[in-house]
């Protein structure tokens, strides 16, 4: 497990970009964290790291956004998804292995994630600009990400 | 009078289109990662162009309407529904699993089509074969691979695994010595769908529906529990 703190939105985006640099194009990245934790900022940085810098926003209503980055990135918001039937009906399983999945509100679908998913828990701290990141499943790249 | 059938399968990663009357006239099969929304309609167009068949010549449409991937099933059903509706032609919905099973007549034993439903589950039904007679042993269902293996152990005789979940089931119990269908026969094909559609009672386009399977009860209960926590 890698533990990192960021102290601004920009730093959160940079963390996303560093993680992007080691992706191979078929990862599932599960984000956990409250409203305002920085999930979308992280995703924006990740997409920028993959050469896509054009309108990354949380797909709260669409449930999934697709970005044509170096690899296809499927950006999910699971806030309104509460059962595996829901998950099936948004075509979630059809996206696996077709690109990188970045999943906000993974709390709601945790039982559907397998062991290969990269799990990133983001928590707010006492300092309003500081965020704590706990990253599981990327230990091999600690020197690049940290 | 022979009946001209156009059939479609796009329920999982492969896609296929067939044209069939009393024989298989044409079949177009691809197995790529391209999405069916990009490929299926041009495949249908190619088959019609190459064979010189016009849509008004088609007497009946057939489609594998599930189980399978949510998006894939919708694309296939929507494509057929649209074509059939335009000229008020009848349609037949065929279970993907049944369509796979009918690729193995004369296999003396149990046919076990399995489609990967993720999370160590497969969409499955069992069929017994004797000569050209293929008999369904249970309804289509979503089932944990472990439970399917338990069930299979109650059957004696040979078992053949087919579908895109076949390798998963085989890998979970290699010691069983089940037969893994060879690659060129393993997946659902529109030709089989068309053949089954010749003898089925058709419906009109408006009544044609995707046939989704609910996840297994155990899975749902686990999720309901998780939601409550």
Strand and helix layout:
The complex is a heterodimer of chains A (146) and B (229).
Chain A: E1 2-6, H1 9-20, E2 28-32, H2 39-49, E3 64-68, E4 72-77, H3 84-89, H4 92-95, E5 100-104, E6 118-124, E7 131-136, H5 142-145
Parallel strand pairs in A: 2-5, 2-6, 4-5
Antiparallel strand pairs in A: 1-7, 3-4, 6-7
Helix pairs in contact in A: 1-2
Chain B: E1 5-9, E2 14-20, E3 24-31, H1 36-51, E4 60-64, H2 70-86, E5 91-94, H3 96-101, E6 109-116, E7 121-124, E8 127-130, E9 133-136, E10 141-144, H4 145-152, E11 159-162, H5 166-172, E12 179-180, H6 183-186, H7 190-197, H8 217-228
Parallel strand pairs in B: 1-4, 4-5, 6-11, 11-12
Antiparallel strand pairs in B: 1-2, 2-3, 6-7, 6-8, 7-10, 8-9
Explain this structure to me?
The complex is a heterodimer of chains A (146) and B (229). Helices cover 25% and strands 27% of the residues of chain A. The N and C termini of chain A lie close together (11 Å). Chain A has 146 residues and is of the alpha/beta class. Chain A has a single domain, classed as 3-Layer(aba) Sandwich (Rossmann fold), CATH 3.40.50. The model of chain A has no long low-confidence stretch (mean pLDDT 94). Chain A has a seven-stranded mixed sheet with strand order 1-7-6-2-5-4-3, with helices on one face. Chain A is globular and about 40 Å long. Chain B is an alpha/beta fold. Chain B folds into two domains: 117 residues, 2-Layer Sandwich (Nucleotidyltransferase, domain 5); 90 residues, Nucleotidyltransferase, domain 5. In chain B, 34% of the residues lie in helices and 26% in strands. In chain B, strands 6, 7, 8, 9, 10, 11 and 12 form a seven-stranded mixed sheet that branches. A five-stranded mixed sheet of chain B has the order 3-2-1-4-5, sandwiched between helices. Chain B is globular. The interface between A and B is medium-sized, with 16 and 18 residues.
């Amino acid at each position: 497990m890698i533990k990192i703190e960021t102290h601004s939105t920009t730093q959160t985006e940079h963390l996303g970009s560093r993680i992007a640099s080691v992706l191979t194009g078929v990862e599932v990245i599960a984000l956990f964290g409250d409203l305002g934790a920085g999930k979308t900022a992280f995703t924006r940085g990740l997409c920028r790291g993959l050469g896509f810098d054009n309108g990354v926003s949380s797909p709260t209503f669409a449930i999934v956004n697709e970005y044509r980055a170096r690899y296809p990135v499927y950006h999910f918001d699971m806030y309104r998804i509460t059962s595996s039937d829901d998950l099936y009906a948004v075509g979630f399983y059809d996206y696996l292995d077709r690109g990188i999945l970045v999943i906000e509100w993974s709390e709601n679908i945790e039982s559907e994630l397998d062991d290969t998913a990269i799990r990133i828990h983001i928590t707010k701290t006492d300092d309003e600009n500081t965020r704590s990141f706990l990253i599981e499943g990327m230990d091999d790249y600690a020197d690049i990400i940290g | 009078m022979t009946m001209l059938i156009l059939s479609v399968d796009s329920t999982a990663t492969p896609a296929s289109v067939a044209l069939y009357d009393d024989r298989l006239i044409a079949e177009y099969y691809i197995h790529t990662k391209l999405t069916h929304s990009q490929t299926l309609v041009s495949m249908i167009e190619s088959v019609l162009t190459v064979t010189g068949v016009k849509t008004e010549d088609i007497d009946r449409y057939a489609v594998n309407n599930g189980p399978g991937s949510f998006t894939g099933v919708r694309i296939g059903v929507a494509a057929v529904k649209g074509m059939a509706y335009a000229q008020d032609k009848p349609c037949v919905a065929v279970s993907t699993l049944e369509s796979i099973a009918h690729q193995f007549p004369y296999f003396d034993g149990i046919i076990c089509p399995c489609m990967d439903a993720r999370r160590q589950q497969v969409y499955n039904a069992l069929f017994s074969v004797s000569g050209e007679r293929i008999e369904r042993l249970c309804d289509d269902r979503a089932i944990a691979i472990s439970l399917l293996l338990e069930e299979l152990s109650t059957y004696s005789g040979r078992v053949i695994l087919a579908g895109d979940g076949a390798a998963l089931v085989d890998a979970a119990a290699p010691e069983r010595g089940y037969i893994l269908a060879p690659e060129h026969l393993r997946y659902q094909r529109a030709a089989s769908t068309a053949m089954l559609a010749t003898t089925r009672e058709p419906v009109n386009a408006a009544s044609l529906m995707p046939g989704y399977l609910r996840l297994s009860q155990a899975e749902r209960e686990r999720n309901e529990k998780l939601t409550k926590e």
